[in-house]
Automatic annotation (TrEMBL):
Entry annotated with the keyword Ribosomal protein: no
Gene3D superfamilies: 3.30.1240.10, HAD superfamily/HAD-like
PANTHER family: PHOSPHATASE YKRA-RELATED, PHOSPHOSERINE PHOSPHATASE
Stretches assigned to coiled coil: none
Entry keyword Flavoprotein: no
Top-level taxon of origin: Bacteria
Cellular component aspect of the GO annotation: cytosol
An annotated Gene Ontology molecular function: phosphatase activity
Pfam families: Hydrolase_3
Annotated organism of origin: Catonella morbi ATCC 51271
Keyword terms: Hydrolase
Top-level taxonomy: Bacteria, Bacillati, Bacillota, Clostridia, Lachnospirales
UniProt protein name: Cof-like hydrolase
SUPFAM superfamilies named among the record's database cross-references: HAD-like
Length: 258
C-alpha cells in the first residue's frame, strides 16, 4: 500500500451502525488516529448535507453529501451540482405515474409528497420524518440535489423515462436516490483528490452499499465492510470486519495506519 494521505468513509453501515446515534469508541479512535498521523479524513455519504451527523471530537476535512452532488470543506463549497429544474418535474411526474411518492432534498430541507412502506423505511434509517409536507411544492422551486424514493430494480427505467441529466444511486434493493448525472461519490472523490493534489494511490475508502462501488474503485485501496453486499465486496480491493465488529479500527491497526 502506498503512503495514505486521505481516507473517505461512508456513514450508514460503515462508520455508523444502522439505527445507532453515534459511532463506537474504537471507530472514534480510528478516525482520530488517522488525523494524528497526518491523514485527511472525509465523509462520502448519500445523506443530504443537513442530515450529516456530527460526531464529538471529529473534524472532517471534507464532507461529500447527496452522493457527490455537494462537497464542502468547512463552509467552502468545492462541488455543487443540482438537478435541472425541468428534470425535477419529469421525475416527480414519472414517479406519480408509477404510484410512487418521492422525497426531495435541498440544502435546507427534506420533504415528501407522500409515503409508502419503502420510503418510510428509507427515512427511518437516517432518522428522518417521512410525513408528507405542504411545503413540497415550495421546496421543488429551490435547487434540488437529490430525490429519494421506494423503487424496485424493475422500475428504474420508468422513473428515468424522458430524462437526460439524472442518474440512479442505489444503496438498498427497495429504494433509490436520484442524483444529477455526472455526480456520484466516485467522481466527487476524483475532484477532491485534485483539490488536495493527491493521487488515487494515496487514497483509501471504506463503504458497504451499492452507491459506494464507484468510490471504492477510484481510490488506490477500496475496502468493503464485512456487512457489505456481495457486489460491493467484489468491487473492493480488500474486505475488513463489519461495522458491528469495529472493522475499520482493526483494519487500520493491522495496516499500521493508526
Amino acid at each position: 500500500m502506498s503512503k495514505v494521505k486521505i481516507a473517505f468513509f461512508d456513514i450508514d453501515g460503515t462508520i455508523l451502525e444502522f439505527g445507532k446515534p453515534d459511532i463506537t469508541e474504537k471507530t472514534r479512535k480510528a478516525l482520530l488516529g488517522l488525523k494524528e498521523n497526518g491523514v485527511k479524513i472525509c465523509i462520502a455519504t448519500g445523506r443530504p448535507i443537513i442530515n450529516v451527523p456530527k460526531f464529538e471530537g471529529i473534524d472532517f476535512d471534507m464532507i461529500i453529501s447527496f452522493n457527490g452532488s455537494l462537497c464542502m470543506k468547512g463552509d467552502e463549497i468545492i462541488i455543487e451540482q443540482a438537478i435541472p429544474a425541468e428534470e425535477v418535474y419529469r421525475v416527480i411526474n414519472n414517479a406519480a405515474g408509477m404510484g410512487r411518492p418521492v422525497g426531495v432534498a435541498t440544502k435546507s430541507r427534506i420533504v415528501t409528497n407522500g409515503c409508502d412502506d419503502a420510503l418510510k423505511e428509507y427515512f427511518e434509517v437516517a432518522s428522518l420524518d417521512a410525513t408528507p409536507s405542504e411545503e413540497f411544492e415550495n421546496a421543488i422551486e429551490e435547487e434540488v440535489y437529490q430525490f429519494m424514493m421506494g423503487c424496485e430494480r424493475s422500475e428504474w427505467d420508468r422513473v428515468l423515462e424522458g430524462t437526460e441529466n439524472v442518474a440512479i444511486a442505489a444503496w438498498w434493493d427497495c429504494a433509490i436516490d436520484i442524483i444529477p448525472k455526472g455526480s456520484g461519490k466516485g467522481n466527487a472523490i476524483k475532484k477532491v483528490l485534485e483539490h488536495f493534489n493527491f493521487s488515487e494511490d494515496e487514497a483509501l475508502a471504506f463503504g458497504d452499499g451499492g452507491n459506494d462501488v464507484d468510490m471504492l474503485q477510484v481510490v488506490g485501496t477500496g475496502v468493503a465492510m464485512g456487512n457489505a453486499t456481495d457486489n460491493v465486496k467484489a468491487a473492493a480491493n480488500e474486505v475488513c470486519g463489519s461495522v458491528e465488529e469495529d472493522g475499520i479500527f482493526h483494519y487500520l491497526k493491522g495496516k499500521r495506519l493508526i
